[in-house]
């Protein structure tokens, strides 16, 4: 009798613990940074850029142009994907098709191969670059490590690779803000050993971690000395340089 009572108590306690874990997990996953008004406005098509939603993808295409170069983007962890719409729209205005990959629970670890969706949706794109912010950058680097033949380059924004890319001949651009309070600087330095030969590090003076996107202040981040539009404009110019240079080199 006592044994049955003990088992009943045990299962009751375990049930309470399980419910608490589930509630805690759902609370964690449901707490994320939301895109601001500027980001939502960047989703409206005009005579310069056409914006289209295709399932998990948000596609920004230069209007009235045939484009064969594309940039696929992985959002930062716990950040609403469309928070990066202004950045991707600005790059599209420079003549490149850009694609934001939506992530389950706003975490790129659950869709590290999401670039495949973009490539399948846009078979007309013959030269692909990939990039990502923070956790999204780490997952983008994992994708590169497993699929180097599919890509011409990788752009990391406030991020560093998990997996070594030293064996690849991929071109890497690493962008980070001087005021970034989120980026783990020690891990960032150690990760330089994982980079391929063709890598460029570009510090954005006055930039921070969160201003690569449009989702407000991020906990633990430094105070930016330049605005989000200024940081994103610099980012677009740096990406444009690497994409244009790589395309010229390959003849694509």
Automatic annotation (TrEMBL):
The keyword Transmembrane helix applies. The keyword Transmembrane helix applies. The chain crosses the membrane at residues 9-29. GO terms for molecular function: hydrolase activity. Keywords: Membrane, Transmembrane, Transmembrane helix. Residues 71-232 form the Alpha/beta hydrolase fold-5 domain. SUPFAM superfamilies: alpha/beta-Hydrolases. It comes from the Bacteria. InterPro entries: AB_hydrolase_5 (IPR029059), AB_hydrolase_fold (IPR029058). This is Alpha/beta hydrolase fold-5 domain-containing protein. It comes from Acetobacterium bakii.
């Amino acid at each position: 009798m006592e044994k049955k009572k003990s088992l009943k108590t045990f299962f009751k306690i375990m049930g309470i613990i399980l419910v608490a874990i589930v509630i805690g997990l759902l609370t964690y996953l449901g707490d994320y940074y939301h895109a601001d008004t500027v980001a939502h406005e960047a989703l409206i098509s005009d005579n310069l850029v056409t914006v289209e939603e295709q399932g998990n993808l948000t596609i920004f295409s230069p209007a009235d142009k045939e484009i064969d170069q594309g940039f696929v983007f992985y959002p930062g962890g716990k950040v609403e994907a469309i928070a990066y719409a202004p950045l991707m729209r600005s790059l599209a205005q420079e003549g490149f098709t850009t694609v934001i990959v939506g992530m389950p629970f706003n975490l790129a670890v659950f869709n590290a191969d999401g670039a495949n969706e973009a490539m399948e949706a846009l078979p007309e794109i013959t030269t692909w670059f990939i990039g990502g912010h923070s956790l999204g950058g780490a997952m983008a680097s994992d994708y590169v490590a497993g699929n180097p033949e599919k890509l011409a380059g990788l752009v990391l924004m406030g991020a560093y690779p998990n997996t070594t890319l030293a064996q690849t001949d991929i071109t890497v651009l690493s962008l980070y803000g001087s005021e970034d309070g989120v980026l783990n600087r020690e891990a960032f330095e150690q990760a330089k050993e994982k980079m391929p030969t063709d890598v460029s590090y570009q510090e954005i003076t006055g930039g921070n971690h969160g201003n690569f996107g449009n989702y407000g202040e991020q906990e633990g981040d430094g105070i930016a000395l330049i605005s989000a539009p200024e940081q994103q404009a610099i980012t677009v110019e740096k990406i444009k340089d690497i994409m244009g240079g790589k395309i010229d080199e390959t003849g694509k």
